[in-house]
Amino acid sequence: MSRVDVYRMIIRRAASAGLDVEVCCHTFRATGITVHRKNGGTLEAAQTMADHASPRTTMLYDHSGDEITLDEVERIAI
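User: That's the sequence. What structure does it adopt?
Assistant: Structure tokens below.
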């Protein structure tokens, strides 16, 4: 299967799921790594599963720390 075929399959699946956002293979990679980390998985295991040579690359896909807490918002003083 070519990379173009994979991309077309992902677009079809996203459309059939009702997603109107742009998705690609990296979307699923980032989601998998993020969910793995949120569920207590280690960076090393995520790196191995993603077949990354460097943990820094894996960290680019890890969005588990992207949530802003109310405490952080309340630090804004005007």
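Residues 68 and 74 are 11 Å apart (CA to CA).
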